[in-house]
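User: Design a sequence. Structure:
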């Protein structure tokens, strides 16, 4: 229909742009609204199917061309056909029309389609509220500060468009409407802040599933090269605030998934082959005072808390149940789907595991048959060395670590691909690897020598300097180390990375990938500038996380305690919220009444004029124009009322004439009052 007309014919061309100032108001307001919609949809592009992005862009461009050329809108049947096609494509893309992804896709399509039937104010209001809904959908994917800032701009734009829809007279400027929208939003800020602080919440503020997306990169499976990939990511994984200062870097081991089963190419959590009563239990033994800290952890796809080694008690986390396993992992009852902040404590001096041999330890010496035969032979040769046959597990471990130090190994982020017998190739040939190569080879050698051993993954070390008072652990601190079992002592930590790259453990000096083009250019100009920019941004982002995203019901009750409530509960919170909202409503009503009279003095003058005319017997209603009132004065009082009628007409010229005034002329108002008083005296004397 309209699209066919627009695109048909050999002489078709885009409508000529007349200039912003020459656009009719309807066209200008429509283009502004289309720009706001495009800005609101833009962050969704990475989540939308390509066809949805293309279709939305096409429809918005089509509507913009119609607004510039003042062309007719398409018929409803064409829009229905496009909607049906979009629904079919959505079903083909997601195999359903329900859920987050298809729901957001259809909302974007509906928004674009609705712009093609903006025939009445009602249609515009539907677009406005669809826009506000789309703003909310962005927080299903990200609650970061940039997304919040972008959506704040969207809200301002939608409010501006809403203001324009309520200003039908004349051609108010976008600047005027934008100021009024910003002012309206500012007036709503106290209510928004009050609801944020006191509205009861059951879980964290943005407890939205991430569809299995892992932000930190930890996994319950490990292939050689996997940790190196995570270590190239420089994003923040953990933030910690220690009581009394941070401990030395070499003690900062954050324990994640423990892997005990090896199939020749991949490490997984152990599937025990013996009954639970015969498995090795944690049997944690600590010494010294605990180290207390606060941790803020980014979302995970795993139900694992990478706590500082070693935690004796479960941290309290709202909405989660936390338990410890026999291998000292701290597991939650469901995957971590939001940013968490909690208090915890750790003992850096500890022993754990059984001191005496139990049946379950044999699971930690199993190796897949047919893999890495040369490494197994190397371990057998080690056992044949003088004194090694009867050596303790600790002595064997020290011997293997000495081989790592003296064997010409290289610690690198880019060791390259390894083949089927990856441990053989790494241990005996290429000797280039990252932490998981060294840990995996150490565990295979120890198992081949008959010593129970396993891999532990997590994070090690932190940034050397605190950031905004927090110790920062990045993705690049992802690490893998080993544990072996020593009779009489239990499980012992062994980190082969410390043998080949001691600075990595003792001073947290991590390998870094080459910088990108922009980062490299900034670093070439000022080596410190890039670091300062990153630190400034991360400080701002951390405060956003701590003060906004991590605000929870526990902090709500803490706030009530600070306000003087001794034992706050849900009822106290609800009563305080209702009381505060009622007080704000009364203040807002009083302010609106005062502001109405302060802003529009013509309203006060009109009301005074009506009261005066009624006293002298002239009917005056709110809908009567000044010219009508002047005519009634002449009809009622004849020649005696001529002066008063002329003053009313002068008032009309001041209010609605070519040289209209923003405020009434005080002298003219006094003249009107004097004339009305004289006319009343004249009428009473007759």
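Assistant: Done.
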């Amino acid at each position: 229909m309209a699209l066919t007309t627009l695109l048909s014919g050999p002489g078709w061309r885009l409508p000529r742009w007349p200039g912003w100032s020459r656009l009719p108001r309807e066209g200008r307001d429509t283009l502004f609204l289309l720009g706001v919609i495009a800005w609101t949809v833009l962050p969704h592009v990475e989540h939308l199917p390509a066809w949805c992005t293309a279709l939305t862009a096409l429809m918005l461009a089509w509507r913009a061309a119609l607004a510039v050329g003042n062309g007719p809108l398409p018929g409803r049947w064409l829009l229905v056909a496009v909607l049906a096609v979009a629904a079919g494509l959505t079903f083909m893309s997601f195999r359903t029309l329900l859920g987050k992804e298809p729901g957001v896709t259809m909302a974007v399509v509906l928004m674009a389609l609705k712009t093609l039937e903006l025939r009445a104010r009602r249609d515009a209001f539907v677009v406005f509220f669809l826009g506000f809904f789309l703003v909310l959908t962005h927080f299903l994917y990200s609650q970061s500060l940039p997304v919040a800032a972008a959506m704040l701009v969207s809200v301002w734009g939608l409010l501006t468009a809403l203001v324009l829809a309520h200003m039908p007279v004349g051609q108010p400027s976008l600047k005027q409407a934008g100021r009024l929208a910003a002012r309206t939003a500012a007036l709503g800020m106290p209510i928004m802040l009050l609801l944020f602080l006191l509205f009861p919440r059951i879980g964290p503020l943005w407890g939205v599933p991430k569809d299995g997306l892992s932000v930190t990169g930890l996994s319950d499976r490990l292939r050689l090269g996997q940790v190196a990939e995570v270590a190239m990511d420089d994003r923040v994984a953990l933030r910690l605030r220690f009581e009394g200062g941070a401990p030395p870097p070499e003690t900062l081991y954050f324990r994640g998934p423990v892997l005990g089963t090896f199939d020749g190419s991949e490490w997984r959590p152990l599937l025990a082959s013996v009954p639970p009563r015969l498995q090795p239990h944690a049997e944690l033994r600590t010494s010294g005072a605990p180290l207390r800290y606060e941790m803020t952890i980014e979302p995970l796809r795993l139900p694992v808390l990478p706590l500082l080694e070693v935690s004796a008690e479960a941290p309290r986390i709202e909405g989660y149940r936390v338990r410890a396993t026999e291998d000292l992992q701290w597991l939650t009852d469901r995957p971590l789907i939001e940013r968490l902040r909690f208090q915890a404590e750790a003992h850096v001096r500890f022993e754990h595991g059984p001191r005496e041999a139990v049946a379950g330890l044999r699971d930690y010496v199993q190796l897949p048959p047919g893999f890495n035969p040369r490494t197994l032979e190397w371990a057998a040769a080690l056992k044949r060395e003088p004194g090694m046959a009867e050596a303790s597990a600790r002595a064997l471990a020290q011997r293997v670590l000495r081989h790592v130090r003296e064997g010409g190994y290289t610690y690198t982020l880019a060791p390259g691909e390894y083949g089927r017998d990856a441990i053989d190739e790494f241990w005996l040939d290429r000797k280039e690897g990252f932490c998981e190569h060294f840990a995996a080879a150490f565990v295979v050698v120890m198992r081949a020598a008959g010593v129970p051993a396993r891999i532990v993954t997590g994070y090690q070390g932190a940034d050397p300097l605190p950031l905004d008072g927090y110790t920062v652990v990045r993705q690049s601190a992802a690490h893998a180390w080993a544990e072996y079992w020593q009779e009489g002592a239990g499980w012992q930590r062994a980190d082969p990375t410390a043998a080949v790259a001691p600075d990595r453990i003792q001073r947290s000096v991590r390998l870094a990938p080459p910088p990108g083009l922009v980062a490299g250019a900034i670093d070439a100009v000022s080596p410190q500038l890039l670091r300062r920019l990153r630190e400034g941004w991360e400080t701002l982002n951390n405060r956003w996380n701590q003060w906004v995203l991590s605000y929870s019901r526990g902090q709500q009750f803490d706030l009530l305690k600070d306000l003087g409530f001794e034992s706050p509960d849900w009822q106290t919170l609800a009563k305080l919220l209702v009381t505060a909202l009622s007080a704000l409503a009364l203040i807002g009503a009083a302010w609106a009444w005062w502001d109405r009279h302060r802003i529009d003095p013509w309203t006060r003058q009109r009301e005074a004029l009506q009261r005066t005319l009624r006293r002298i017997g002239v009917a005056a209603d709110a809908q009567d124009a000044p010219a009508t009132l002047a005519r009634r004065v002449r009809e009622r009082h004849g020649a005696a009322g001529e002066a008063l009628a002329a003053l009313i007409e002068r008032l009309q010229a001041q209010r609605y004439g070519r040289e209209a005034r923003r405020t009434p002329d005080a002298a003219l108002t006094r003249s009107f009052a004097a004339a009305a008083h004289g006319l009343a005296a004249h009428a009473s004397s007759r």
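The chain is about 50% helix and 10% strand. The chain has five domains: 2-198, 226-506, 517-549, 556-598, 600-685.
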